[in-house]
């Protein structure tokens, strides 16, 4: 990581923010604050995908709009997603809100 990059990490997910994520009207440091605020309000969900008891991938989903969730990123191994593991597929979704989730 360089001096002009940030990592927002929560639960088992992390979001990397660099100057390229910002712009003239919205500096990248403002984007970092917005990501942190969204995490604290529970607007970003972390989805852990499993096959049986084996972890396959982690997805970050923007769930602020209940009508339309937006996929923000995925981390994991393509190898694990293609291997035939025994057991059912399952997804565990977790969110933090620190009591800041809007009613």
Please tell me about this protein's structure.
The protein has about 100 residues and is α+β, with helices and mostly antiparallel strands. It has one domain (about 5-95). Helix content is about 15%, strand content about 40%. It is built from two helices and six strands; from the N terminus they run ββαβββαβ. The chain has helices at about 30-40, 80; strands at about 5-10, 15, 45-50, 55-60, 70-75, 90-95. Strands 5-4-3-6 form a four-stranded antiparallel β-sheet. The chain has a two-stranded antiparallel sheet with strand order 1-2. The longest helix has 13 residues, at about 30-40. The mean pLDDT is about 85.
For the residues shown, what is the average pLDDT?
87
What share of the residues does DSSP label as strand, in percent? 35-45%
Gyration radius over CA:
16 Å
Give the neighbour order of strands across the main sheet: 5-4-3-6
First-residue to last-residue Cα separation:
37 Å
Structural class: alpha+beta
Largest sheet: 4 strands, antiparallel
List segments where confidence is low: pLDDT < 50 over at least 5 consecutive residues.
Answer: none
What share of the residues lie within helices? 10-25%
Number of distinct beta strands:
6
- General shape: globular
